[in-house]
Amino acid sequence: MGKLDGKVAVITGAARGQGRSHAVALAAEGADIIALDICENIDTNGYPLATAEDLDETHRLVEKEGRRCVTARTDVREPSQLRTALETGVAQLGRLDIVVANAGICPLGAGVPRKAFLDAVDVNLVGVINTVSAAYPYLSAGASIIATGSVAAMTKGATDNPAHGAGGAGYSHSKKGVTQFVHDLALQLGPDFIRVNAIHPTNCNTDMLHSDPMYRVFRPDLEQPTREDAEAVFAAPQVMPIAWLEPSDISNSVVFLASDDSRYVTGLQLKVDAGALLRHTQPYAPA
Length: 287
What we know:
Layout: E1 8-12, H1 17-28, E2 32-37, H2 52-64, E3 69-73, H3 79-93, E4 98-101, H4 115-135, E5 144-148, H5 165-189, E6 195-201, H6 212-218, H7 227-231, H8 247-258, E7 269-272
Parallel strand pairs: 1-2, 1-4, 2-3, 4-5, 5-6, 6-7
Helix pairs in contact: 1-2, 1-8, 3-4, 4-5
């Protein structure tokens, strides 16, 4: 018996990284999966995005867990594509219970076009809203909506540093927007017993972290920093002395928020950050 037996989840950005990990983790607990990903690059984003072959591998890994998987190349910036993908997925799998709005980009760099701000917002915030809007008609009491935020966006001077360009500002703006969206939507959907929560990871062992633009963020003192150069300081933001989390560390929280274990948890901003934000928040002081 799995915690999610008989349930169906849609996951965006599912072709690799955190999205693939979430798909496999939810499938391992019994959920069938609708796995969506754009599977093409976005010009202002300075590292390659997932491919169709990556999405096929997610499909294979979900089926390896004994669950059904429907995949579609879907751009979260396009509401019509999401509606079509969900209509097809729900027709094949029968229902929808879990929404994991995970797709995201981080177009860092002082030299990126100003359009990078809009691209980051369109994918990371508008994409979350589009995903939830497309999924909402299929949801009922007990459903769970989970959005991916970011510890970096909650840390002043991180991605919103002017040195990181328009894309960094867009990343920060978009992930802060996710925080507000989750809070406000939880208030609206709570009376229907539909939960809405966000997970905010710190450094995570994905292609976004292991990319030239991110290396330059962590090592601005070097003109052409390598992965080895950046890894030397990746642990700096965390209180716990680790360089990064694994995608499975985030997936554990996704499973919790997707399952009935969290049936009365809503509006939560869950930091999975090895203590990174402890340096940027004030301790609670009783009135």
